[in-house]
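Protein 1 of 2
SEQ + STRUCT:
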Amino acid sequence: MTQDKFESQERPGPWAFHLALCLLAPLFFFSFFLSVLAPLPILYLHSGTASRKQGRLWALAAIVLGCGLSLSIQGLGGSLGFLLMAGLPAFTMGELLMNRKGVEKSIAGGFFLTLGTTIFLGWLYFQQQTEPPLAILQRMIQVQVAVLQDQKLNQQSPLLVERLRSALEPLEKNPALILETVPGLVLTTLLLLCLLPTLVLIRWNPKGFLRRAGIGLDFLRKWRSPVWLAWPTLFCILFLLLESKPLSIVARNVIDPLLLIYFFQGLSILAYFLDSLRLRGPIRILFYGLGSMLTPWLMMSFGFFDLWFNFRGRLKAKKEKDNGP
């Protein structure tokens, strides 16, 4: 029995639940703190629905509905933003995952397609403007600083808002610094938009998603980043230490997404150790919270040096040695 025939015998989820997910995507997009999860509801509709045809149609419906709501609330810019930050990466990754292209290729496909489209639309936008690009970017940053000064937002998370504002204020005063920091921020944000929803879907595994996408049940705790990523990371660290422009500027922007990848590899190592200790429930969530919020650099270090130390392999060898022949 083929995969499509097997899927056709499964009943799709209730339409009311799927419609609620369609509305959840723009709700995430409008939220200051949840916007990075905007692709998740669409990706669930596409790849977490039992029927591939139904999933594709519901995902398209969510994109159209989200673009329409964004257009009515935030104008054309909001509609294009929703398409770029939610619809395009979610639908691209959903298609690749359901065609069993693998998690890494699916995330890379969504990331590079979204990045290329963003650069193209940005180029078209600046071509139609009479102001210099740096002046336009400075004005955009001034708007963001004004938003961060909103009293309600400060009450929600004053520490995070203060950090964001302190990072934006130097850019507001000196627009030339935008070229040294904004590209890295964009790369990291787009990578998060593709990484987080996919990882949530893998952890959730709705309606046999892992089986249908050809992903192993132990994928999250055994995942390793590609070996070749170590070379660009080392070069970025070298040029950051040497402060040799323009290579140091390139390194400053490329290092952030690379460290983000190693951060998730560190979380994968942590998941392997937690499984070995058979820790579940609140204790497991506590360790994830500590690793993510309090010791992110430790997680990045474990992920980067895993290439040489093979932490999971050492633990496995130790357990086999302790158990004996």
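Protein 2 of 2
SEQ + STRUCT:
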Amino acid sequence: MKYSVDKQDRFSIFSLMEDKLNSLIAPDLKTELVILNNEGYHNVIVDLAQVNFIDSSGLSALLVGNRLCQKAGGCLILTNLTDNVHRLIKISQLDSILDIIGSIPESRDLIMMRELEKELKGEAPASTEEDSEA
């Protein structure tokens, strides 16, 4: 699986560089999302700009990542969806479960807004890699 990860202070950007997110790729994606979560990255932006096809196993991997992030008090955001992928997510009625945002900057802004809201409510800020090493 070809991908890149850009780890920021309060979120990470996971860019999948594959044409298809199918049963060959999905287990690796799921593993990487679990690793990010275990490293303390509970806000993950998944950039799917290069993905033109997604099957049920790919959707399942994204749902696992979404569940992990939510249980840790964060969120998983899908961004830069191609028309085919967006249509498949809508047909699967997962657009009401998954956060879908148009671009990485908009996704980053949403995460920062949610983190600020948590801080204003007195909730603990999202842990980062530095926090887990302390």
